[in-house]
Amino acid sequence: ELGEWQHALRAQFPIITAHPEQAYLDSAATAQKPQAVLDAVHTYLTTTNANAGRGTYPWANRTTVLVEQARDRVKRFLGDPAPERSAVHFTSGTTEGLRTVARDWLPGLLADGDEIVVPFADHEANIVPWLEAQQHLARQGVRIRVRPMPYQRASGDYDHTALAETAGGRTRFVAATHVHHVYGGDMNIHRIRRAVGPDAVICLDAAQSIGHLPVSVAELDVDFVVFSGHKAMALPGTGAVWARRSRGPDFVPGGWSGTPNTVGIASLTAAMNWLDAAGTDRIEQWTVALASRLTDGLRHLDAYEILGCQTSLAADSPVQRRQGIVTFRHHAIDSSDLGFILFSHGFMVRSDQHCQGRAGERTGSVRVSPHVHNTVEEVDRLLAVLATLG
Ligand code: PMP
């Protein structure tokens, strides 16, 4: 049944069906777009295109409404239980979104002597803004202590026990990642909340989870969710910050930010509609099954070392949950060379370093990140090629 569902969805990706001999396995870098998103872009640009917020004619008014409705759509997509109190700010992606939180929200949350927790083995985009904020605050005489997020290196998960031991009453803010972009595991965010208590502010980098699995702000109990549209099947240059508590209707992060990316925002709405209709729970089931199959296959090939999440456990396992990212290295072949070799066999994967912070991996690796259009046959074909390189 899941197979038929997947078959119908795969057919909706024109770039995929146009290249049946190739397998796109780099969705963690950016996702391909279904026809519905391409149609929404075309329709917007051929029927409505205008600037938002300042028009006296129908195209401009429709664009204003489109942007406002997109904010509500993001809230609904995230299962926001109190949309009247929250805020959505559109950005160009996760990188700008995290910077926006660091620049426009964080200073108001912190006082002299407070602590923040920074995940130094996560994506650079979730490290640099917090260090910049620390410097910025120091210039104003507010001294913030930065604590490194503890990790369990073998699994690529956070060490929630160590976090609970080190986090104290001054721990006001925790930057965390929902799904690790190299290690491929769900980072157990509810355990962070348990470790740091109800009053700490948790900012979630959801770049690798939005569009891949259901993301519920009520369930996760986080204060900020930041993501990129392009990884969730919308156009590049889109993204959003969801903030649990709005700072009021007059507050515009970053000041008046000029013309919004209206067509990008239209594509984001279309992408969320498509993802909800497809079912992010089923997308998760599918990509986890593919990633688990790949992990299990790799474990039998001596030439490869799998990084981070090694499990192929069911979603309800008490151990770390695997998501749809598998990263590995060959004992002798350089990861960039392996990337070229795999492309010569029709596989598009990410190789080398992965924008991971300095506490991350020292050497390169190959990352395989399937999405709903990928098939079991593609994974088996990839494993067969990898086996010949042993
Ligand atoms: N955080 C994580 C976990 C990511 O995987 C990425 C993208 N690789 C980013 C942040 C940055 O996203 P963007 O390039 O869309 O700003």
UniProtKB/TrEMBL annotation:
SUPFAM superfamilies, per database record: PLP-dependent transferases
Family: Belongs to the class-V pyridoxal-phosphate-dependent aminotransferase family. Csd subfamily.
Limits of the Aminotransferase class V domain: 24-382
Organism: Streptomyces cyaneochromogenes
InterPro entries on file: Aminotrans_V_dom, Aminotrans_V_PyrdxlP_BS, PyrdxlP-dep_Trfase, PyrdxlP-dep_Trfase_major, PyrdxlP-dep_Trfase_small
Name the UniProt record assigns to this protein: Aminotransferase class V-fold PLP-dependent enzyme
GO-annotated molecular function: cysteine desulfurase activity; transaminase activity
UniProt keyword terms in alphabetical order: Aminotransferase, Pyridoxal phosphate, Transferase
Record field: catalytic activity: (sulfur carrier)-H + L-cysteine = (sulfur carrier)-SH + L-alanine
Gene3D superfamilies: Aspartate Aminotransferase, domain 1, Type I PLP-dependent aspartate aminotransferase-like (Major domain)
Requisite cofactors: pyridoxal 5'-phosphate
Pfam families per record: Aminotran_5 (PF00266)
